[in-house]
Amino acid sequence: MSKYSRKDFLKLSGLASASLLLPNFLKGMGAGTDLRMSEMLLPVTNGKRLVVIQLSGGNDGLNTVVPRGDDLYYSNRSGLGLKGAELINLDTYFSLNAKLQGLADLYMNGEVAIINSVGYPNPNRSHFRSLDIWQSASDADKYVQSGWIGRWLDSACSNGDYKPYYAMELDDAMSLALKGNILSGIAVSNPKRMNAMVEDPLIYKTAKAWTAHMDDEHHIEYLHKTLAQTEMSVQAIYDKSGRKLSKAIYPVHAFGKHLKMIAELIMADAETSVFYISLAGFDTHAGQKNQQGRLLNVYGNALRAFAQDLKSVNRWNDTLVMTFSEFGRRVKQNASAGTDHGAANVMLLAGGGLKRKGILNEAPDLKNLVDGDLQFKVDFRRIYASVLKNWLGADANGILGGTFETMDFV
């Protein structure tokens, strides 16, 4: 019996979307065809990279970028409020959580922008629903089955030049964010293992056996195209990921490992334009200070190492890192030394090509709360629109399905 299961095959066949633009869907199904990266076309974008970091669970923005100059912060958080050595002061009002020393180093070097009170109208406190809203870039009362990065792929690859790895998620499953209406990105957590899977003859024998019992030519073509695109993408990623170009020291953590992989792909001139990565564990209803601190330490140190790697090959100025969470936390701490689901939150941007740095807008309003939550002042889609238009050179209005005023951080 093969070491790969039917579950592995189903996972593999779902990794990449079926490209309706591939001229010969049998190409890449084996038969000695080599679809290595060196034979690929040039990227469809302008050579800039976007790295999206999702802090899953609802990171507490007020204990990330701390408004220590507001007495209401401490009156609402008598035990959870950070002070003294728990803070890295940015100015007379704002501080960073001291566990974010790596981020602070980048901030002091003019490589970080902070946007407070980011959210959307009629916020939802459900992890799943709010994340869908952020990933689809939809209104809170609309259900959209495609993601904003996937629709960027639809738009960017309209000339027929499509490779699933143009948008890549470092995970075993692909998020809604990377699923377009026509095209989608690819999710790969372990390139070595996935490359072994696509090179196993059983995959193609199984596909042939399945298609022999299919009557619908469209579904047969879909399966073959999916496998061809998957093989091409996984091989391309594997070729670039094994060169061990990184010299920086990353945290011993899955997030650090994946961010290092992204750095090495960029350093190896992989064609991927958008990377998506998550750091989970931020649902801090209890014992927040230690739990959030450990995660922020991993995040900050990994981001600093990432910047060091890219600076060594002059890629940092062409890379933008955008960090978000599906919602913030309540202003008032709960009875379990934690915080409950909230609404508006802080967003972080990092890179060597930022036009504006530091704190970009006013402090969160801790006085005028709605049901205990911060009110949003900046619609998150304004930030998406700015990244799409000013960084990736894309049609932001078309991708987001509306007009959102851009910001000038890039």
Q: On the 0-100 scale, what is the average pLDDT?
A: 86
Q: What is the chain-wise order of helices and strands?
A: HEEHEEHEHHEEHHHHEHEEEEHH
> What fraction strand?
5-15%
Shape: globular
Distance between the termini: 54 Å
Helix/strand class: alpha/beta
CA-atom Rg in angstroms:
22 Å
The residue ranges in which pLDDT falls below 50 over 5 or more consecutive positions are 9-43
What's the CATH class, please? Alpha Beta
Number of strands: 12
The name of the CATH topology is: Alkaline Phosphatase, subunit A
CATH level-two architecture: 3-Layer(aba) Sandwich
Question: What is the total domain count?
Answer: 1
Q: How do the helices and strands line up, and which of them pair or pack?
A:
Elements: H1 6-13, E1 49-56, E2 65-66, H2 71-76, E3 87-89, E4 95-97, H3 101-108, E5 112-119, H4 127-136, H5 148-156, E6 167-169, E7 186-187, H6 191-199, H7 201-212, H8 217-241, H9 254-267, E8 274-280, H10 288-312, E9 319-324, E10 345-350, E11 358-359, E12 378-379, H11 380-391, H12 396-400
Parallel strand pairs: 1-8, 1-9, 5-11, 5-12, 6-7, 6-8
Antiparallel strand pairs: 2-4, 3-4, 5-10, 9-10
